[in-house]
Amino acid sequence: MAEFSAHTVKSFDEDIAQLRAVITRMGGLCESQISDAVDALVNRNVEAAAVIVENDKRLDALEAEAEALAVRIIALRAPMADDLREIVAALKIAGVMERIGDYAKNIAKRASVVAQAQPIAPAVIIPEMARAVVGIIRDTLDAFVDRDAAKASAILQRDQQVDEFYNSLFRSLLTFMMENPHYITPSTHLLFVAKNLERIGDHATSVAEMVYFTATGQRPAERPKNDFTSTIYAPQ
Amino acid sequence: MAEFSAHTVKSFDEDIAQLRAVITRMGGLCESQISDAVDALVNRNVEAAAVIVENDKRLDALEAEAEALAVRIIALRAPMADDLREIVAALKIAGVMERIGDYAKNIAKRASVVAQAQPIAPAVIIPEMARAVVGIIRDTLDAFVDRDAAKASAILQRDQQVDEFYNSLFRSLLTFMMENPHYITPSTHLLFVAKNLERIGDHATSVAEMVYFTATGQRPAERPKNDFTSTIYAPQ
C-alpha cells in the first residue's frame, strides 16, 4: 500500500523519466550487442555469439516494459498533446531499439558459418563500420537524454559514412566471389552482416530525427542517402 | 465550425474506426506494392519499378496520418486501459506496414540490376514466395478488421512455409553462384529480394500476433521459425 500511494503521488515528469531510462538502457544494450556481435564474428568466437543471441531477449523484454509503462502513464495522467507526442516518440524509439537488437542478433548468428571459412580481406572494414554505427547510437542517446536538437541534427549526416562503408564492402565482396568460388559462402554472409550494419545506421539516424522532432516540433530536412548497392553490378 | 462540432460529437468507436481504416488502406497498399515489385522484377520492367519506389511515399504519409489520429484520439478521449492498448497496437501495426513497404521498395530497386543479367532458374520461386506473403498480409488484415482471434491464430504457422521457400532459394542461389561467376551479381540481388520477402512474412505474422493479443489479452505461444539460412554453408 505504501508503495502504491508513493507511486500515485509521483509526478508526470518522474513517470516520463522512468520511461526514458528504459530506453537509455535499451540503447546501451544495443551498443554492446553490436560491438560484441562483430567481435564474435571477427574472432570466430562461436560461444560468445551464442550468448549474444540469448541476450537479445533482454531487449524484447525492455521493449515490452516501455510499452506497458507508456500505456500506464497515458491512462493515469491523460497527458496533453505535447506530452503525448513525447510518449509516442518514446514508444517508437523503443521499437527501433528492439529492431536494432534483431540486426545485432542476426550478425551473431552468422559467426559460426564465417568461422568455418577462410578469412577474407574486406572483412576488416566490418569492425570499422560497426564502430561508426555504435558511435551514432551513443550520440543519439546523448541527444535523447539531453533533449538536444543541435546534437541530434549534427548526427543526421553521419549515416552517409556508413552507407559509403557499405557500398565499398558490397563491391569488394562481389569481386572476391568472382575470383574464387570458395569465397562465395563467407562473402554472402558478410554481405548480410554489412547490410545489417547499414540498416542499424539508418534506424539509429531515424531516432536522431525523432529526437530532433520532439525537441523542436519541426521535421529535419530529408537526409541524403548514399546506399546505392541495390544498383551495383559487379565487373566481370 | 460546423465541421469542428460534427467532429467533437463523433463517438470513440467512430474515431477508432477511422484509425483502423487508415491501417486497412496501408495493408492493401502493401499487398499491391509487393506483388507489383515482384512483377517488375520478373518482367524486367524498370519503369514499373520506378513507380513502386515513388508509391512508397504514400505508405509513409499514411503512417504519419495514423500517428496523428492516434495522438488526437488519446488527447480528446482519454481512453481507459483496454482502448488505449488497442490504439497502441494500431500504432505499432501502422509502423510494421510502413516497414513492409520499405522491403517492397527495396525489391523494386533491384529490378534494374536484375534486368541487366541473364535469367536464373531459381528466380521462379520468388513470385510463389511473394504470393505466400501477400496471402499472409491479406488474411491478417481480415483478422484485424473482424477482430478475429481464431483467424489470426490460424495465420501464425504459415510463416514457416515462407521460411522454407527462403531456405531453398538461399541454397539454390549459392549453388548457382558457385557454378558460374556470371550468376554472382544477379544471384546476390535475388538473395536480398528473398531476404526482403522473408522479413515481410515475419513482420506480417507479428501483426497477426498483435491482432490475437488485442482480441484475447493473451500472447500466442512462441511460433517456430524455420529460417536457418544464417548457418547455411554451400557445398563446394
From TrEMBL, chains A, B:
One of its GO terms (cellular component) is cytoplasm. GO terms for biological process: intracellular phosphate ion homeostasis; negative regulation of phosphate metabolic process; phosphate ion transport. It comes from the Bacteria. InterPro entries: PhoU, PhoU-like_sf, PhoU_dom. The keyword Iron does not apply. Residues 23-110, 126-211 form the PhoU domain. Keywords: Cytoplasm, Phosphate transport, Transport. It is found in: Cytoplasm. Belongs to the PhoU family. Plays a role in the regulation of phosphate uptake. Homodimer. This is Phosphate-specific transport system accessory protein PhoU. It comes from Sandarakinorhabdus cyanobacteriorum.
